[in-house]
Amino acid sequence: MNSREQQLQSVNRLMDILDELRIKCPWDAKQTFESLRNLTIEEVYELADSISSQNTEELKKELGDVLMHILFYAKIGSEQKLFDLKDIADSISDKLIFRHPHIYGDVEVKDEEEVKANWEKLKLKEGNKSVLGGVPKALPSLIKAYRMQEKASGVGFDWNNKTEVWAKVEEEIQEFQESEQEANMDAMEDEFGDVLFSLINYARFVGVDPDKALERTNQKFIKRFTSIETMASDLNKSVADLSFEEMDAMWNESKKL
Known about the structure:
The protein is mainly α. Helices cover 75% and strands 0% of the residues. Helix 1 (4-24) packs across helix 4 (56-79), helix 8 (141-154) crosses helix 10 (185-205) and helix 11 packs across helix 12.
């Protein structure tokens, strides 16, 4: 692999390129924090896709895109005399040292759970008013629920064991079914949210990433449904022309494949 010096030279090269583009390229010249925001979100999702697909070549490219965005924000911040790359690096370095007193201080921890618990307590000392304050509002709801549960658990607000959590899942399902029988749509939405929240909590308890699990199912559904479309095409039919029984039979066949 490349040496630290070689890696820093490549970062400097990228910074030089961004400096030049900022001056000479009309598109780059007009970018702001706000205009880059949605593009950055898109790049992070593309990065996540490359991780899920275990495509290391794409992962390298997407990490490059994200790095470029970080350096671009640093460039804009420097132009506005707000901050530069040094300030950004110093900020995260200081935070990491402060939040790892078991490495850079005299605190002792026995396992990962104690590290996570100390992390949340230290964040409150930094001035955060709420344990949940660090969860971004714009996070997708499923990931947001998981992160909120993790953070609450970090300060001791959690179930004792997975049996209790599953009992809560069953309780929430029953409450949803009762609201459904009453045909109360508002209550149904509320109770269904509770069902999802409790299932996410159970996934966390047994060590399953619910977002990753759902995406695996999404990809599985895409493959199997696409297979049905292919089978229909082989019969010179559109999938819309098939009966449910035909589609179900093809679905079962695609599962075997």
